[in-house]
Amino acid sequence: MKQKQAIFQSHHLNKEANPHYNDYATAVQKVKNILQEQTGLHFKLYQSDMEMDQVFEAAEQMIMQNDSDIVHICSIYDNVSVATFRYTVVENYTVQPSIENNIFYFPKFDVALVKMPIYQSHEDFEENFLFASDDQSLLKFLNYLLEKQRQAMLKGISVFTDTDDGLIKTREKITQQIHREDVLLEENIKTDIFRSIDEFFLKSGAFFREYDIPYKRGILLYGSPGNGKTTLVKSIAGSVAAPTVYWQITENTSSYSIQEVFSTVTKMAPMVLVIEDIESMPDYARSAFLNALDGATSKEGIFLIGTTNYPEKIDPALINRAGRFDRAYEIKQPNDDLRKSYLHNKGLEKFLDMNQMELLVKKTKGLSISQLNEVYMSIALQWHYDQEIQIEKIVDDLLENQRKTKKQDWDLDEENIGRVGF
Question: Which positions fall inside the AAA+ ATPase domain (predicted)?
Answer without folding.
Answer: 215-335
